[in-house]
Amino acid sequence: EELRMSKTNNFDAQSTFCVLCGRTDDCPEKYGEKRTYVNYNLTLHYYCLLMSSGIWQRGEEDEGVDGFLITDIRKEVNRAAKLKCNICKKKGASIGCVAPKCKRSYHFPCGLQRECIFQFMEDFRSYCWEHRPVQKFTDEELGASQCTICLDSVEHLPVYTVLKSPCCKNAWFHRECLQYQALSAGIFFFRCTVCNNKDKFQKEMLRMGIHIPERDASWELEENAYQDLLHCYQHCDVIRCLCKKGRDYNEPDSKWEIKRCQYCGSRGTHLACSCLRSWEQNWVCMECRSIFAKSGKYSKQKKRSLAASEKTNGTTCLLEEPPPKSPRQSSGSPRNFLLQSSKMMCQNLSPCSPLELPASNRVTMPLSPVMSNRSWSQRHKHLREQRREVCNILKELKVQVKTKTTRLNINAENIWSSALKGFRQRIFSPTNTIEVKFSNCQNRFKTNNSAASKHHFFQLLMLHLQNSSLFEGSSGKNLSFDFQAVKENLYFEAGKMIAVSLVHGGPCPGFFSKTLFNCLVYGPENVKPALEDVADVDVAQTIKTIKYANSLSSLQATLQDCCEFLDAAGCLRPVTALCDKNMLVHDILIYHVIKRIALPLESFMQGLKTLGVLEKMQMHPDVFSSILCHKPERLSAETLCDLFTIHSSPNVNKGADFWMGYLQDVESGESVVTLEDILLFVTGSCYIPSAGFDPEPTITFSCIRYPIGNRLLNCLKLPITKTYQQFKNKMEFTIRNTLRVERE
């Protein structure tokens, strides 16, 4: 007869004794669920039953108590009644140590109290306090650090209450913290909090007596657990709201759409109320502006670039002939390098090109003569050679990528959340070919070219990471310490995204500081940080005051003022001479730039190991620094000439001359399109990927009316014309209007 389990009001579970341990405690976290079976006059703790040495699951899952037959349970109770517990000295000790020749028996709660280990796997073995398994420690590991779950201090000692990760040397845990984490995460989500390793980590924790329940995570089982996250702030907070329908009115894709503050997200404005011409423009609320003004984190130069970017938004009519050429300013010969405004490119959220802006509105400026032309040219040439080497290395790694595809549905308005969701889905694999679909705010998918969507996705993702709270600094960025990001394992995901982007055809990140890069390839213990690596204004000012103190009394006064900070950094020590300041400055820099971000760095490195990228970085540090520590090379006529291979055909010489002359005109500003537009027209990308194009771009000349860009083959078919002016007109008309049609 099928067992009926009931917990009725007539049977108080708190007042009943477990038939195996004799206790009335009802603590599921420690002893498992306390179950009462009225029909059989039976009450027991689930863990007491699992760990009992003389009973096995002889029935099916729906028989008895999860496969333990009632007759077997009663036999086990009778057997245990004859055994005395070696801890509390009472009868009923149903659990025995499995070590050879060990005759100790104990109740499950007594075993926990005496620090025995119970393995919730295979044969459900139990070990007494003398024979329990232990983790191996080396003398170098002794010390103290933070528990990566509760972030309280944990001593590195071979004791029952402390566990270390088998996969990360810097990950230490309190046993109690780890057990609660396992009960909450379940078998599908329980993994190393630093490197995200699952198999090796779970195997070691099971060996050390951590119970991992075979169920989904608690947050996945709770109904409507994420309902609050779906709420978006929709209110106009500017002093004078111009909308006649009220401050809460929001009409997408119009001037009455509400834009939230890019930093806090808790303030909003209608586009029209803050003179924003498009949703892509960033907006900062008054509260955030005042905070930044007081902290001095944003320079006047950045404010000017923001203001300049607001002037670069314009629209043009669809499918019109090119207007008379409006030359942009250039410094010298057609081959001089021009720096296009990066802000304009950042705000363009469509995978199309900068062509949505009139040529007259595209901001350019000559390169500042920081160094002589000769030395700059040599450095530029060296960077090119290094990037070619990186390209070949990444092509080797790309061999791992299979033809099987994984689709990422990306919301361009919330690039980080949608990318994170895609990378964390169970079916995602870095070795699968990535296909990207962009969605608008109505959740309808745009029909973009697959290659163009993927290239644009990686471009937006790298830009977001560069400006995210995971990094700090102005141009060369270091990792920051974001407690919430550590808790949510976002540093691992960021490293993984950068690795996947590099191999799958994303752009050069180009924002790593030299210090961060050296930590990744040489190890943090071999890196000496500089004052420029400190992004916090207050900390930097403190270090400067100590560094430039000109007397012992002024130095001691400074240390007195910041003694709390020095104590927290572990740098507080007696100073007896002025020369002691040098060692003190060194220690503060090591703490703030290196030790403080030990957990984020370890997690970030684990993410970069995806597809073998970090290993290659450590093998070839010089060449990888060219794409991680230096901004991507701006396109030039020479770069595109080298990029494209021209196939031989009749009239190829005349056509090649027209092609190279046209590139020079575009570079010098004597065209309505840009070099990025040309590359986008042919390949679907406005940048050259770190791993190069596959297949390599080619050019053929044919008797056709207008040029054709085949993005599947990266092939550009060009018309054969009698004059250069005809060639130029056809190129500009086709490229300009094709890209504009795609955008619409």
Automatic annotation (TrEMBL):
GO terms for cellular component: nucleus. Pathway: Protein modification; protein ubiquitination. InterPro entries: EPHD, HECT_dom, Hect_E3_ubiquitin_ligase, PHD-type_Zinc_Finger, PHD_PHF7/G2E3-like, PHF7/G2E3_ePHD, Znf_FYVE_PHD, Znf_PHD. It comes from the Eukaryota. It is found in: Nucleus. Keywords: Ligase, Metal-binding, Nucleus, Transferase, Ubl conjugation pathway, Zinc, Zinc-finger. Residues 15-132 form the PHD-type domain. Residues 303-334 are annotated as: Disordered. Pfam families: HECT (PF00632), PHD_G2E3 (PF26054), zf-HC5HC2H (PF13771). GO terms for molecular function: ligase activity; ubiquitin-protein transferase activity; zinc ion binding. PANTHER family: G2_M PHASE-SPECIFIC E3 UBIQUITIN-PROTEIN LIGASE (PTHR12420:SF37), PHD FINGER PROTEIN (PTHR12420). This is G2E3 ligase. It comes from Thryothorus ludovicianus.
